[in-house]
Amino acid sequence: MCEKILVVDDEKEIADLVTLYLQGEGFHVFCFYEAEAALECVERETPDLAVLDVMLPGVSGFELCRRIRESHRFPVIMLTAKGEEADKIRGLTLGADDYVTKPFLPLELVARVKAQLRRYKRYDAIGREDARIVCGGLVLDETDHTCFLNERPLALTPTEFSILCILCKNRGKVVSAEELFHQVWGEAYYDRRSNTVTSHIRNLREKMGDSFENPRYIRTVWGCGYKIED
User: Fold this and answer.
1) Domains of the chain by start residue, with CATH
2) Which of 30, 143, 204, 219 would you call most buried, defined as having the most Cβ atoms within 10 angstroms of its Cβ?
3) Per the confidence metrics, is the pTM higher than 0.85?
4) pLDDT tens digit string along 166-183?
């Protein structure tokens, strides 16, 4: 059964081109040019991944992402204008897993879609006994992609879950932002000016009720990276 991809962009030429490339890779694509119809599709079809343009008429891509995150955990990739760093940070804060800057090569977007799906789907192949990670009050299960903190469920995006898994598996050790980027996004090039990892760490702390000044879980080791103590 082929994976279902939601594509939403008000620039018809871009939406249709992305759809064409994704269909060429065997994906079943739902293509829309505005958010309301896309939201109806999300509830009706439950796609495996969404590609959302930031600038949409009426309901913006940001608001669409926020509504999706109210009840769904599948990966979301945002399409942002070139140089709009604030858009990238806002999208990640609202629960997006990745972003692609316009103009982009369609094959680059296809590669990112496949990378996100691999990370999101691979937990199904892991044995349940080996997939359970316990770290203090944190319990993560890579099989069903669930996370509990002191028996309280945390609604994490696939990217947030991956980052937390890496930190927990390396408990007591410092993991650099660059290493997290390479492991989670699977890309060779890391831009130290990017706020991608920082934004996801901030989201995790907020969901965990952690503070930046006096963290109980995720600690920042200045100039080095992040770590979780057992």
Assistant:
1) 4-122 (3.40.50.2300), 127-228 (1.10.10.10)
2) 204
3) no
4) 999 998 899 998 888 888
